[in-house]
Design brief:
The chain is an alpha/beta fold. 30% of the residues lie in helices and 24% in strands.
């Protein structure tokens, strides 16, 4: 199998470091790093993706970014007329920003997910059974590290959207907490007058998200265009 030329935006950030540590060099070539700090294992490095020439960008098979909304939107603008592939885990997008990302995928291939953990995806599937108790009261609570900008988290909002579709009713905005170096805890509680049911997922490290992103990159390299998510990924 041909190795995948990887472009990593935010390569020295927390998720960037986790992806670099999880990188299987038998499958991936560290090709382009966008980072203000040294990433010596990459063949090419730039402080800003604006410095990446269109010619070099075309040689990148898949870009992975867990950076910021601003950078993701700039990426869509810079390469709107190019056919590239992007795996994105950036959350907090407004409806118009999300629409811009979807429009971008009409020419390029985009894989986006608020959470790339296999366990969290399994939890989302298990929530479908809650349609049997739609008359219960529901709450969603999440905890992340202090540097997490969006509150509630993108994952908590995704869970809320999932539940509202399953239960056919609106739910209260999830409650978000910020505590030191918590990687991510999401808790759903369903309560009636007679019983309480709890679903909870805890990420023990960032490598679970990094491995999910790399699996998504392996999937996306076979696509030319379109918008994809965890629902399209074979986790086995």
């Amino acid at each position: 199998m041909k190795k995948i030329n990887l472009g990593l935006i935010g390569a020295s950030g927390k998720m960037g470091l986790a992806i670099r540590e999880s990188l299987d060099l038998k499958k991936f070539v560290p090709f382009v790093a966008v980072s203000s700090k040294n990433c010596s294992e990459f063949k090419n490095q730039f402080a800003s993706f604006n410095d990446v020439s269109p010619e070099l960008a075309k040689k990148v098979d898949v870009w992975i970014e867990f950076s910021s909304i601003e950078i993701l939107m700039q990426l869509c603008s810079k390469f709107k007329n190019s056919k590239i592939r992007i795996v994105s885990g950036t959350t907090g997008l407004s409806k118009s920003e999300f629409k811009k990302l979807q429009n971008f995928s009409k020419k390029s291939a985009v894989f986006w997910s608020s959470n790339m953990s296999p366990g969290l995806w399994a939890l989302r599937q298990s929530l479908k059974s809650l349609s049997l108790i739609s008359d219960f009261q529901f709450s969603i609570e999440e905890t992340h590290h202090l540097q997490k900008k969006d509150n509630p988290s993108g994952t908590a909002i995704t869970l809320q959207q999932d539940l509202e579709k399953i239960l056919h009713k609106k739910l209260k905005t999830p409650v978000g907490h910020r505590l030191l170096d918590v990687f991510g805890v999401h808790k759903i509680t369903a309560k009636s007058a007679s019983e309480i049911l709890t679903f909870e997922h805890t990420a023990l490290n960032r490598s679970v998200f990094a491995q999910g992103a790399l699996k998504a990159a392996t999937f996306l390299v076979k696509k030319k265009q379109g918008f994809y998510s965890m629902a399209d990924l074979n986790l086995k």
